[in-house]
Amino acid sequence: MNARLRAENATIGYDRRIISSELSVDIPDGSFTAIIGPNGCGKSTLLRALSRVLTPSEGRIVLDGRSIASYRSKDVAHRVGLLPQSSLAPDGIRVADLVARGRAPHQNLLQQWRTSDEDAVVRALEATRLTDLSDRLVDELSGGQRQRVWVAMLLAQDTSIMLLDEPTTFLDIAHQYELMELFRGFHDDGKSIIAVLHDLNQAARYADHLIVMRDGDVVTTGAPEAVLSAELIESVFGLRALIVPDPATGTPSVVPLDPRSAPATPTPEREFSHGA
Ligand SMILES: Nc1ncnc2c1ncn2[C@@H]1O[C@H](COP(=O)(O)OP(=O)(O)OP(=O)(O)O)[C@@H](O)[C@H]1O
Ligand SMILES: [Mg+2]
Fold first, then answer.
1. Quick one: what percent of the chain has pLDDT higher than 90?
2. pLDDT tens digit string along 168-182?
3. DSSP 3-state helix, strand, coil percentages of the chain (rounded to 5)?
4. DSSP letters of 176-209?
5. What is the per-residue burial (b if ≥16 Cβ within 10 Å, else e) of 43-72?
6. Would you say 32 and 187 are in contact if contact means Cβ atoms under 8 Å apart?
7. Cβ of 21: how many Cβ atoms within 10 Å?
8. For 30, 104, 200, 270, which has the most beta carbons within 10 A of its beta carbon?
């Protein structure tokens, strides 16, 4: 398995607080990877390390064969883009101007704004259906529209590796799937997509690779149909659930059991189709 991006025995945390100790994990090239795990288990912390927002105190993050710490910031930003779990837009900024900030890593003192920058912004606005909103103030958008602006900014950055921290949280169900389809399109275009997702059914539908975390550690990794089991859901989330094929796609879906019901529930035959 090739991995342009991976953690090697990385100890990651904040000040003296260690969240993940000697964590090693590969992001398979060209994969649609979903990182799942309970609140506070270290998913965002891992994404921050993978995008060099955080530096491991021990071990390292490797990007394209060498330590990510050895790159100029600009060179990291050409390869890896991060959509953080929450971001604040500068006051009074307009949609197109915020999206244009995604081009910052492509600029230098001599070469200012170029046609390629303009093209990237126009394309990002189109892909996220924001063209008609491009002159609006970001502050005056709905939460879902604003989320699309951040995705557009990341798209304008034009990296082959995209790290997305809970990109669909706060969106209505239709807009969640619209955004997931957009990411699937980026993946089809050859990008590696790594998304922290809380919706396990969505994760199993869209991702071809799961990284399951608990208490700062990676518990297991692999294809959703190989990884998702009632035992795993119980041990990682403390939730008793059935794993059944998603009626729409055949991928695994997690149906929580009624906690008041008797524990012995037979597991239905597991016949999953491969990633949607
Ligand atoms: N800036 C910070 N300073 C100190 N501790 C932090 C900081 N950010 C997160 N933590 C702690 O690190 C641990 C892991 O947090 P992290 O944000 O990585 O969890 P997560 O898996 O992304 O959770 P969630 O699903 O709620 O987003 C938590 O105990 C959290 O309190
Ligand atoms: Mg998080």
1. 84
2. 988 899 999 999 999
3. 35, 25, 40
4. HHHHHHHHHHHHHTT-EEEEE-S-HHHHHHH-SE
5. bbbbbbbbbbebebeebbbbbeeeebeebe
6. yes
7. 16
8. 200
Does the pTM exceed 0.90?
yes
How distant, in Å, are the alpha carbons of 14, 50, 59, 114 from that of 1? 31, 18, 21, 38
Closest C-alpha residue for ligand 1 atom 26: 39
pLDDT in tens, 115-168: 999 999 999 999 999 999 999 999 999 988 999 999 999 999 999 999 999 999
- C-alpha–C-alpha distance, residues 276 and 273, integer Å: 8
Å from CA of 232 to ligand 1 middle: 22
Using DSSP bridges, classify how beta strands 17-27 and 80-83 pair: parallel, antiparallel or unpaired: unpaired
Whole-number Å distance, alpha carbon 80 to ligand 1 midpoint, is 21
